[in-house]
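Write out C-alpha cells for DUF4309 domain-containing protein.
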Amino acid sequence: MLLGCVHSYGTEESVSKVDILEKAKIGALEGISIEIGASKKEVVHNFGKPIRTGNSEYGFSMYYDGFSLEFEDYATSIDEIKEESKVVLINAEPKIVGITGKPNEISKSLGKPSRTILDDTGDNTYILEYEVINYLLIFTFDTDQSPVKYITLRIK
C-alpha cells in the first residue's frame, strides 16, 4: 500500500492511518480543507464555483478537481441550494487523500473494516467500510484485486 505525502508549512509529512482515521472522526478527509457539516456558503468561499453540478444519491453535488461534495438538499441549479445547506458526503480521488492500494493493503494498514461488500448485482464493485463515530469512511474498488478507485466519507 502506498501512503502519499502532503505538504505542511514547507515540510513533508507522511499520511498515516492515524491521520486518515482521526480526520474521518471529525468529518474530514485528508487533502480536502472542508468538513462534513460545512455550508454551501463556506464551500463556495473556500473553493469557488464548482466545475459542474448535479443531483446524486444524497443530494445536490458540487464537483471540483479531484473531489465532490454532496449537500442535504436536491436542486436543479446551484442557485436553488440554500446558503446554509450542509455537506453530508465527500467523495475524493485517492491522490487527493494520499492513500492508494488494493483492499488487502488498505485493510492491513487501517485495520479490519467494519464491513466488506461485493456488489455482485452488476459491476462487481468491492467496498471496504470503516465506521468512525458518526461517519462511514468508504473505500471503493473496481474488484477485490484492483487499487482503490475513490474514497467516500459520509454521515451514517
